[in-house]
Amino acid sequence: MKELSFLVDEKYKGKRLDVFLQSVVEDTSRAVIQKYIEEGLIKVDGKEIKKAGIKLKGNEKIEIIIPEEEILEVKPENIPLDIVYEDDYIAVINKPSNMTVHPAQNIYNGTLVNALLYHFKNLSNINEDNIRPGIVHRLDKDTSGLIIIAKTNEAHEKLVEMFQNKNMKKTYIAICKGNFSKKEGRIENLIGRDPYERKRMAVVEVNGKPAITNYEVIDEVQDFSLLKVNIETGRTHQIRVHTKFLNHPILGDITYGSPSKIIDRQMLHAYMLEFIHPITKNMIKVIGKIPEDFNNILKKLKFDMEKINKIGE
Predict the structure, then answer these.
(1) DSSP string, 38-81
(2) Among this protein's residues, is 140 annotated catalytic?
């Protein structure tokens, strides 16, 4: 069971309670919110609410109890993996696009976790559920690239601490629309659920979490730019939200940009990881091979491939 509370900003005055909660509670549909209301799991200013359509006045305190989900068994599947680093404590996988990291929302097959359970004898089990063994951080389904897996609970705990303390250097490459007036920059603001479209995240002024993205244009052609991106935080859709915020959405990102005629997924790849091993204390640097579809677009748009290779030097 999880308990959440929200203070309603004045700008939500007049909005329906269920619509507001749908926009601020992650991975929850409006139907589920209405079910919580019917079950008496939501209070406004301390009073139990039974009607989903009540209009907010602003400045209310909303409390919500989210019951535990039914725990389902996740089965191993013989799905090929590109394992770029492995020892007794951790592994680094170069995840393909079109692969969900862990089961969620009735998706229990074809995920990275299904593959991990087949390929590895030992995975950390520190997560509260049983559907995320070994998972320390995530990548979006259609984002390709490097993801670290913990084999032991000790390694998992220390990796989480490293992410929290920003001791993990994550370098992405992205193809964005348009040419940037500033060839490098730092974006620092809050990211939260888009109040008008619950499936998206957005730069917000309230009910958000700090997000920091550093970018550098490493090459540009007419109408497109190739970015090297380092993130200091790991918010949901962070790079995609921040490039949209700069009015240069990632090519192929239909959620934060527009459909592309030349590619059917966002051109974002987690290219390189640099960190001190949580157990051995050795310096680890790994590069995830750029997938074929990404390479094809780089060549089609005539980007300089040598400039990408220099990122890892």
Answers:
(1) HTT-EEETTEE---TTPBP-SS-EEEEEEPPPPP----------
(2) yes
Active-site hit among 18, 27, 45, 140: 140
The predicted model scores a pTM of: 0.78
pLDDT in tens, 289-301: 999 999 999 999 9
Residues in the chain, pLDDT under 70: 1, 27, 69-72, 105-106, 128-129, 198
Q: Which fold has domain 83-164?
A: Pseudouridine synthase (3.30.2350)
> 250 and 203 in contact (C-beta within 8 Å)?
no
Residues of the chain with CATH 3.10.290.10: 2-66
Give me the pLDDT at residue 245, please: 97
Q: In the CATH hierarchy, which top-level class contains the domain 168-274+290-312?
A: alpha beta
**Token pair of 214, please?**
């550093």
**CATH 3.90.800.10 for the 2-66 domain, yes or no:** no
Non-local CB neighbours of 205 within 8 Å, separated by 6+ positions: 190
